[in-house]
Every structure is written in C-alpha cells, then in structure tokens.
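Researcher: I'm preparing a figure for a lab meeting and need a structural model of a single chain. I don't have an experimental structure, so a prediction will have to do for now. The sequence is pasted below. Please return the structure as tokens so I can convert it later.
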Amino acid sequence: MSIATEHTEARILTLVHARGTISLEELLSCLPEWTWSQVFTSVDALSRQGAICLRRRNFEYELRPASPPPTGFLEGSEKRQPKEPHSTAFP
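Model: Understood. Here is the structure written out token by token.
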C-alpha cells in the first residue's frame, strides 16, 4: 500500500469517526484534493477490512464506523500496548 493510499484511508476514517455517519457524497465534498476513484478505492478497502460499514440508503451510500474502531488508522491515535498481568507469586 502506498503512503498516499494510507493517508487517504486515515483521513476517511477520521471523518467517519468524527461524524458517526456520513454519506459518500458528503465524504467526497470533504476531500476535494482526491479524485472520486481514489476515495472510492479507499472506502472499498476500508469496508473489506472491516474498518467501516458501508450501507445503501435509498439512492445513496452511507458510511459508519465499525465497532470498535481499529487502532493505528486514526490520525493522532496512540497504539495501545497490552498490559502484562501482575504476578502474585512471591520470590
């Protein structure tokens, strides 16, 4: 995956999570720097990965965040490290 594609996907996830629900048309208007094809390709990839839910509503498509949001995609998000269990044994 190219850096441009990763950036496009991260930006889309940020918008989807910020709004909760957004139509594909609204998303396209929020991303004028990318072509329809670039946005659609990224939306398709994110949907296949399970990062977003893509649904048809009447004559439009609507994007919603998947639950729970994947870590590492959102801009500025911190990767969470699993905590090690505390040992109760004494030396």
